[in-house]
From TrEMBL:
Pfam family, one: HTH_1
HTH lysR-type domain segment(s): 21-78
Domain PBP: 120-269
The organism's taxonomic lineage, starting at the top: Archaea, Thermoproteota, Thermoprotei, Thermoproteales, Thermoproteaceae
InterPro entries xref list: LysR_HTH_N, Molybdate_resp_trans_reg, PBP_domain, WH-like_DNA-bd_sf, WH_DNA-bd_sf
SUPFAM superfamilies recorded: Periplasmic binding protein-like II, Winged helix' DNA-binding domain
This protein's name: Transcriptional regulator of molybdate metabolism, LysR family
GO molecular function, one term: DNA-binding transcription factor activity
Length: 297
């Protein structure tokens, strides 16, 4: 006996199930409708019909021809897939198309390296639990003492050393004094995200109750999304990495530096180690001297 839970997105009265988002993920991973159909084990016309039905429901193009040939997701398609995968991960569901699934914290360099793969940016704690539960193979964490966190919550897993990165306040205008933030609107991060803990700590230092902080319930899934929303004027500030702040032209006030490591299932640690050692880091990040080293509690 086995139990299957399916998450559906309801758009304009239409229900779009996992098969639609598996199709989008397969296209994103293979950059080809033909190869995506082969990966899914379905006829090419069936895949086209799935995508066409989703596009009619959403009222937007989800795929387009790539300049290099083949097919890629549009920005609308990429956003729809991200939203579905984030909601699925919160419910303990993965699409399961990749032999190496990532679930954990977000970093711009990590996202770029995972492009074309299956990644769930769900925050450090949720990612650790997904890897521990066998839903993913590895994931990024920044929980303070990362090795201690693995030993406490998932001693059957190992840790791959990664990099150090600067974290701070990103705002549209210069911040002369952090007390200015008390009455400014925030873009927050999801519960369980390491950056959410940073935000809570900052608010405590400012003497602001989270319930009273403007925008506390306004959540962005990734550092780039949070920074982009501040840059667009939807909020006044967020807490993010220097790389995300600079990418979106925001003023950055450094608060601290943190270790970003990777938790892994033992059988996936070799690939996770190569992944960590090969990252092309952005501004404000630097590799640890022991990057790629596997440590088991």
């Amino acid at each position: 006996m086995r139990f299957v839970a399916e998450l559906k997105a309801v758009v304009g009265g239409a229900e779009l199930g996992a098969e639609v988002f598996k199709a989008l993920l397969a296209i994103d991973m293979t950059a080809s409708m033909k190869r995506a159909a082969q990966a899914l084990g379905m006829p090419y016309t069936t895949l086209w019909n799935l995508v066409a039905r989703a596009e009619r429901a959403m009222g937007a193009r989800l795929v387009e021809a790539s300049r290099r040939g083949g097919t890629r997701l549009t920005e609308a398609g990429r956003r729809a897939l991200r939203l579905y995968m984030a909601e699925a991960a919160r419910r303990g569901i993965v699409l399961g198309l990749s032999p190496l699934i990532y679930a954990g914290s977000h970093d711009p360099a990590v996202e770029e390296a995972l492009r074309g793969g299956e990644a769930y940016f769900v925050g450090s704690l949720q990612g650790l639990l997904m890897v521990a539960g066998g839903l993913a193979h590895f994931g990024g964490v920044h929980l303070g003492d990362n090795l201690q966190a693995v030993a406490a919550y998932a001693p059957h897993l190992c840790l791959v050393r990664g990099f150090r990165r600067e974290v701070g306040v990103a705002a549209r205008r210069p911040i002369a004094d952090l007390t200015q933030l008390a009455n400014m609107r925030l873009v927050n991060r999801p519960p369980g995200a390491g950056t959410r803990a940073h935000i809570d700590r900052l608010l405590r230092q400012l003497g602001v109750s989270p319930r009273e902080a403007p925008g506390y319930g306004d959540v962005a899934q990734t550092h780039d999304e949070a920074a982009a929303r501040v840059a667009a004027g939807e909020a006044d500030y967020t807490v993010t990495t220097r790389a995300a702040a600079e990418r979106h032209g925001l003023h950055f006030v450094r608060l601290w530096e943190e270790d970003f490591d990777f938790v892994c299932r033992p059988e996936a640690c070799g690939e996770a180690s190569r992944f960590a050692a090969g990252l092309r880091l952005g501004p404000g990040s630097r590799p640890r001297g022991d990057a790629g080293q596997v440590v088991c509690p």
